Amino acid sequence: MLTYKEAGVNIEEGYKSVKLIKEYALRTMNKYVLNGLGSFAGMVELPEGYKKPVLVSGTDGVGTKLELAFKTKKYDTVGIDCVAMCVNDILCHGAKPLFFLDYIACGKLEAEVAADLVKGVSDGCVMGNCALVGGETAEMPGFYKEGEYDIAGFAVGIVDKDEIINGKEIEEGDVLIGIASSGAHSNGYSLIRKAFPDINEDFNGEPVWKALLTPTKIYVKPVTEVMNKFKVKGMAHITGGGFIENVPRMFGDRQLTAVINKDSYELPAIFNRIIEKGVDKDHMYNTFNMGIGFMLCVNKEDANNVIELLNSLGEKAYEIGYVTAGGEGVCLK
Fold first, then answer.
1. What is its main location (predicted)?
2. At what angle do helices 220-229 and 78-91 cross, to 10 degrees?
């Protein structure tokens, strides 16, 4: 008799995985979650205090950074990347994350690996102030290679309609503040993997893969503190496409230009190493975050106070440029 296990799907391993994952999801729960794990769907109540609540959603994955996790068998950080890529995006419109769902796919399920992946997701949800209310783990033998996983996520946040940040109030002379990244985050890894065929090469006394697996920084808590105290006119999450593609997105359809001084902050060592590998520096501003993972646009008179607040919260923040008229998008000096 042919069984599901003989076809490559181990139901018992799936049960084990769920049991291991459950504790990680439970630590993210908050008062707005109305039902427990194991239901067919997660239920989340909208918080009080919103006059015209608008739900803001985003979805993303980790990309080829996952290959480093496969090679090093370190799976407990890429889940943070998955959450960060989603919640940082919805934050750009002033939304506070409410809940998150994940999707994990593999060729052969190993419960401990799946649990490590979800541990990272759980850690990311705690950092992002959102609840992990559900997810899916799909075992697909013959479709994915054994030992390889894919992970993606979906985040929903909330903002008052009158407080949506969409760039419409940005004016010439406004200041751009950059918040430091934690490294390459989760973008450009197809190029990184070409640049580092030996992931064990030395980088500041350790194998370079440790720096390359550093998880994406989650900016929800510090940026929320800024929004609570200052007028924020625009925000950009510097992801794939780097400065060139992402900074103009904060302007919407406005004919404005972000003038950015590349020397206003110190370029992190990992990017200098990538340049040493033969990657053109100018090209990198269209691929990587180049040390700035998140950007704020504020009134000139607020800039110093915003930077001081971010620094007091443990972030490295810099005045990196300003806004001028014209539709060039980005001007790097």
1. cytoplasm
2. 20
